[in-house]
């Protein structure tokens, strides 16, 4: 059984929750935390999550596929460098496509000076309609300083996602894996199929059942931007000195072995 088959099997062992049922989850004092690990650790985490979490089920599937295309300004890559340096406020322009339903959205994602992120989006016919026909131009100009004549499609990615919800419905956990990048500027592609990005969105006033499990598996909070990582590994011409140490740290995280107790369990 492949790793993706094992992940799928374990996600299906968790009771399902529908999109409609998830609408009742209101995180009034929301805190977001990212973690980076590898697929072997994810397999153990899903085993430990049994009895604590639901897994989102859409059209009978526990795993959803996504495609994302980012834009940046011509020449300077202002949005990339602003994120890379941690400057605020900052903006991302992207089209996200939900592969299963073939729905696409033009999204403007902003992080303000207080670190709070807001996302607005509109439905678009397709990614090609935005690239070729500048569909959504008015929406873009209303929310950013750019027009489509000033920016170009740069990095694209594809990944799979599992969404978990705890039994008390006080948190959501998105788990992204099998990540692939393609850069329209350079024509280069890269795979990070062993990387797993976990994002915990929770009510900060209530204890989280996943945090003790992550500590047990030695998974610590760690920032990870698909846009920045993907750009660095597919565009050697772009200035990236600030990111080399961070990339090395990520690679060390995803290559680390499981704690010995879990290695012994796998061998039995």
How would you describe what is shown here?
The protein has helices at 3-12, 19-22, 39-49, 78-84, 127-133, 137-143, 210-216, 226-234, 241-255, 260-267; strands spanning 16-17, 30-38, 53-56, 64-73, 90-98, 103-111, 117-124, 151-166, 171-183, 189-192, 195-203. Mean pLDDT is 88; it is low at 260-268. α1 (3-12) packs parallel to α3. The two termini are 16 Å apart. The chain is globular and about 50 Å long. It is of the alpha+beta class. It has two domains: 1-64, no CATH class; 65-159 and 178-200 and 224-257, Hypothetical Protein Pfu-838710-001 (Beta Barrel), CATH 2.40.320. Strands 1, 2, 3, 4, 5, 6, 7, 8, 9, 10 and 11 form an eleven-stranded mixed sheet that branches. The chain is built from ten helices and eleven strands.
How would the blueprint of this fold be written?
Blueprint (H helix, E strand, L loop, with lengths): L2 H10 L3 E2 L1 H4 L7 E9 H11 L3 E4 L7 E10 L4 H7 L5 E9 L4 E9 L5 E8 L2 H7 L3 H7 L7 E16 L4 E13 L5 E4 L2 E9 L6 H7 L9 H9 L6 H15 L4 H8 L1
Helix pairs in contact: 1-3
In short:
The chain has helices at 3-12, 19-22, 39-49, 78-84, 127-133, 137-143, 210-216, 226-234, 241-255, 260-267; strands at 16-17, 30-38, 53-56, 64-73, 90-98, 103-111, 117-124, 151-166, 171-183, 189-192, 195-203.
